[in-house]
Amino acid sequence: MEQVELILSGGQVVTMNEAFDLIPDGAVAINGGKIVAVGGRAEILERYHALKLIDCAGKLILPGLINAHTHVPMTLLRGMADDLRLDVWLLGYVMPTERTFVTPEFCELGTTLACAEMIRGGITTFADMYYFEEHVAKAAAAAGMRGVLGQSILKYPTPDAESYEEALARCRVFIEAWRGHPLITPAVAPHAPYSNTDESLRRCTDLALEYDVPLLIHIAETKFEVDNSLNDSGRTVVEHIDSVGMLEAKVLAAHCVHITKTEMTTLGEQGAGLAHCPTSNLKLASGIAPVTAMLKQGLHVGIGTDGAASNNDLDMFEEMRLAAILAKTEANDPTALPARDALLMATRQGAAALFLGDVTGSLEVGKRADVIVMETDVLHNSPMFHRDPNAIYSRIVYAGKANDVTDVICEGRILMRERVLLTIDTESALREAQAIAAKVDAFLHAREASVLSKLLAIGGLRQSESFEVQVKARLSAEDDIQRLLRHPDVEVVQQVRYRQYDTYFLFADSAEGRVRFREDVRVGAENEIGSARARLTLTTPEKEREFHGAVLLSHSRFIADATNTLRFYREYFRPTEERELAKDRSRWHILYQGVLFYVNVDTILTPALSDKFIEIKSRTWSARDAEQKADRIHEMLGILGIGAGDVVRDEYLEMRD
Amino acid sequence: MEQVELILSGGQVVTMNEAFDLIPDGAVAINGGKIVAVGGRAEILERYHALKLIDCAGKLILPGLINAHTHVPMTLLRGMADDLRLDVWLLGYVMPTERTFVTPEFCELGTTLACAEMIRGGITTFADMYYFEEHVAKAAAAAGMRGVLGQSILKYPTPDAESYEEALARCRVFIEAWRGHPLITPAVAPHAPYSNTDESLRRCTDLALEYDVPLLIHIAETKFEVDNSLNDSGRTVVEHIDSVGMLEAKVLAAHCVHITKTEMTTLGEQGAGLAHCPTSNLKLASGIAPVTAMLKQGLHVGIGTDGAASNNDLDMFEEMRLAAILAKTEANDPTALPARDALLMATRQGAAALFLGDVTGSLEVGKRADVIVMETDVLHNSPMFHRDPNAIYSRIVYAGKANDVTDVICEGRILMRERVLLTIDTESALREAQAIAAKVDAFLHAREASVLSKLLAIGGLRQSESFEVQVKARLSAEDDIQRLLRHPDVEVVQQVRYRQYDTYFLFADSAEGRVRFREDVRVGAENEIGSARARLTLTTPEKEREFHGAVLLSHSRFIADATNTLRFYREYFRPTEERELAKDRSRWHILYQGVLFYVNVDTILTPALSDKFIEIKSRTWSARDAEQKADRIHEMLGILGIGAGDVVRDEYLEMRD
């Protein structure tokens, strides 16, 4: 009799091998981290003596589940911000938080917490993309899980790299350190084509090819991404990565919600793997991936939970179930993606998508011993039918729950026994996670405390503040602006004309100030529409000071290019009120006695006002300078013949005819 | 200090009242089945002394969940047959099984099992539609759950009524017996407009109005149903029920996947409630209900699991989550149906949809005490963020699980305490359920054992079997059929011409016989296409007997009108092979010496054969009659001058040119 380390005995073995063999009253013998025998219980127990025997009578023995796409450290951000649009969520909450909090320790802790949840739910292998991936590797290996772990590479600064060159260098070190590890497959993870340059995509590919490691990337997650790709390069997203040669590498493409049949063919011919993430795709309203068509083309499609910050859990039972039922509606065919195929995607096919097809994903002699045991004779899965051999897959996929998993083995090591995690100190991880969440809460709370801090949190590099002295006056029909422009003390430097479309966000506490989203559209001499530019300004209602002649000193506390859309800012700031102002503005940059002033002649279009207005203003930087400029503005009003009666203190927004 | 029966104390109270009040460290005082106080813990404990106190520290206290649409006895059929098209599933499996197994005992047991699962997952109220609903009521009341229970009414015979008149009579008795019960609201449940007549729909409405009870019905579940409704009556489904006056009653309309904005307005104006069943709709590929639009119109939309035979569980946490994320993709807006709204649908709004808005659905003084306690400081829901008050709804909806519920109270009675069910003997229910499942398995197994038994299981009323004597011969160009037709012993009764399109299903065991799906299309004198008719026949390959002159006695073991499509039968029988045969057939009904015979002249179109063939045949019922008819067929072959060399024994399917 041969001695082996471990035998799982009794219970029905769901092999998920090519023949989909089901072995009632079966057993799996494990030694040296490998599966050495799969068969009937009596037969196995006759041939092997086990140092340890797990009785699985009445349960199912299955291959460990494969989570084909996730970001495990983000488990620490679960439920931080939900029900937001992708850009508000990402730019407004996730990225500012990541910039502040993501450290090696954060990544290790988040990975540990995620591994605890994944093991708890029967997952033995996962594919990850995040920062400080060497710390993800360290924590995953300690937890005993198998991982294909991709170091993220973006063209922007990230928590672990100032540039993509630095990220690539980090990635090389990571690969060198971890390749050959029995559990960890290091990988290169260019975040997405749109967040990389062609150059960085090429260098990622070269690195993946040099070390023969997988390349993980987000592909065609949203229609917006595809439209942009077509606009920018005339290529679909898959055509784009193909054009830089990326598909020569072992590519695992996550999402692929919006890809064509031709793109599927390309991915298939080049042997790429795909990761389908139905919960994340639905929750972010990205769409429904055409999984039935992908499978029909013979693609290797796995199933992924995506990160817990967008899911909000790492439950492959829910993900399998959703994949199966969503595909039916997508294909308009209730026989599409039957339960067995969904389980296949979460096991053998998922392993193939991760380029681990020879290593894991099914219970077959020679594969590594990644095995789980689950109960199905439970209340929510009773009664049991046996007539149709597919009933067993139906029980697993349509009514099985993460909590039904009782035992988990990875690489022959027992990670969970009778629902008790053996490799992770869950309590301490939960405590530390809660401490971080409290800090993140405090950080976001402080930031949300004022409109200004919210603005600063998403501000670009070119934000600034300014002080201006300014006067505004009603311009009667007789007033001739030329009197000022042709005055000997005046030199006109520049003349431009704009349409200005302002949207003001007002808040319950008016002391917070107002956020103005302004779109300036250039208008040419022939009224032709020119280039547009959007800026964001935070103004406080109170004027800093008033000089003689109603010349006011105002303070804009924040000015920056508006890099996002009006809709983004609306959802981010959630103003209590919104007002619109549109005007036609002729603007002269003049030197008056050698000092730069701006003269605006405005026609207010929305809300329509019958009068025209003139504004004279100048930037300032000291009280003394402001006072001198106020004097000059006063002189210019004199040249124009504008008296105190025509000066207005109201903002346009306040005026009505 | 006032004495009350029960206080839930500590923990955060999620009231789901109009103001969505959240009370950290709160308490709920319960007496006489009612909520008598909701507030801060200290304040409640100061005012009330409790006979029993449940410590909820660190947990959430929520209103019990409302399952707005289900068929609880069908829990006994969970996982019996999956991944089938609706008609195959319903007509091929569910209905034959129901005809055989659904009894009062079946309904009580199924209800008990379902109640156990629902209580386990925090559901306190459900709306049901099934047969023997008085037994559903009995079991639900015993389990302590609140139910709006509809006795099903169909125009077809059902397990509990031979006709809709009988079903209506049963329903009246049911209402009389149960109205006024503190937990049970009896209701009328016409299954659907398409499974009722206008008359039965009207009588259902009258009954609901007479007793002022709700009326439960399936509405616009599939596009097919809507198309049929438009074809049949020119009305959409909602227009149809409105036209019979049904919306005067308190209608709870399940599914409403395919309804227009106008139909939503109609439902809203008439105060109908809706039950959204996302898992069932996806799994059966029915589509995605426009929930965002429904909510925008102010409709009361609850969430339902549907029956466990099509879900496959009764888990409102999964259903809430799916409702929330699916709505985002349906509306193409990730901010659609945020977590709080999804929980609202599963609580207060669900109660309103069930016309129990004053009774349950929120934690408010005066409402009945339907309360659940759940943990969220669990691995799969950590860490916790508190900055955004919506985070708590996000935790419940996006990462909460049925298993997180620890305590359930309905009508002030504790149904589950620390995850132990107190009103149901789960073990004995599971044992009995498994015994029934074994019987159903055996029944289906026997039925699937032969093609004939599968046919009989779905057979219509007009099925029959027949014996025929027949001969077939090659017709040469010179052979003149007129020689027979004009013969003095022959009288031509009828002449018709058909195109016959046959699809044969062949099975691995040829002894099973072949199923032939035949579509007869009449062809007129001018080759115009006439009416079509489809029939299903099971023929065995062996001939019963051969007479002289190669006249064969054949036996068709089953003939019936094909009431379903070819596709249905294909998916139901799953043949190993399928063959097509198409022919042009001229057919004469003749009396030869006063006896009826059929003479067919066939041109085989698919597979194309160059020869024409003649068949002469007659029905028979005894060996003696068969022999006499075989003699006459032999004589007719003589009249036509057809010799033994032209007679063919092969079936058309076997022939090749």
Topology (SSEs and partners):
The structure is a homodimer of 657-residue chains.
Chain A: E1 2-9, E2 12-14, E3 22-23, E4 26-31, E5 34-40, H1 41-47, E6 48-55, E7 59-63, E8 65-70, H2 86-101, H3 104-120, E9 123-130, H4 133-143, E10 146-153, H5 164-178, E11 184-190, H6 198-211, E12 214-219, H7 223-233, H8 237-243, E13 250-255, H9 261-269, E14 273-276, H10 278-283, H11 291-296, E15 300-303, H12 316-331, H13 339-345, H14 348-353, E16 371-375, H15 391-399, E17 405-410, E18 413-417, E19 420-421, H16 426-448, H17 451-458, E20 464-475, H18 482-485, E21 490-506, E22 514-523, E23 529-539, E24 545-546, E25 552-561, H19 566-573, E26 577-592, E27 595-606, E28 612-620, H20 623-640
Parallel strand pairs in A: 1-6, 2-7, 8-9, 9-10, 10-11, 12-13, 13-14, 14-15
Antiparallel strand pairs in A: 1-4, 2-3, 4-5, 7-16, 16-17, 17-18, 18-19, 20-25, 20-28, 21-22, 21-26, 22-23, 23-25, 24-25, 26-27, 27-28
Helix pairs in contact in A: 3-4, 3-16, 5-6, 12-13, 12-15, 13-15
Q: What characteristic shape of chain A results from the CA principal axes?
A: elongated
Most strands sheet of chain A? 8 strands, antiparallel, barrel
* Mean pLDDT value of chain A: 92
> How many DSSP H or I helices of chain A?
20
End-to-end distance of chain A, in Å? 100 Å
DSSP helix fraction of chain A: 25-40%
- How many β strands of chain A by DSSP? 28
Low-confidence stretches of chain A: none
- Assembly type: homodimer
Show the largest interface: A-B, 79 and 79 residues
- Gyration radius of chain A (Cα, Å) is 32 Å
Strand order of the largest sheet of chain A: 20-25-23-22-21-26-27-28
Class inferred from helices and paired strands of chain A: alpha/beta
Strand percentage of chain A, roughly? Answer: 25-35%
